[in-house]
Amino acid sequence: MEKAAIRPSSIDASIEMAPSQVIDSPDLPGLFPSGVRVYITDIGLADTPTLVKAARRGADLGYTAVPHMAARRLTTRQALETRVKALAEEA
Predict the structure, then answer these.
(1) Which of 21, 23, 31, 73 has the most neighbouring CB atoms within 10 Å?
(2) What is the pTM assigned to this prediction?
């Protein structure tokens, strides 16, 4: 019995990547179908400008960049507002 081909664009999927992977990977362009959600993790190693840069690159490559913000890493309201504003305006 022949299996039907699965077209990647018909799969509702996502991928999780570290900001450095999104920024530095030469293999990322075209690796996933356009519109795939790329969750950008916050493990405490990247500052706001790095997260913005990663989200912008993901979006520029045609993916849906979804930055993750770990609440425990944002210790003040100002830090949260700064990060959200930067991601909304610059990414």
Answers:
(1) 23
(2) 0.82
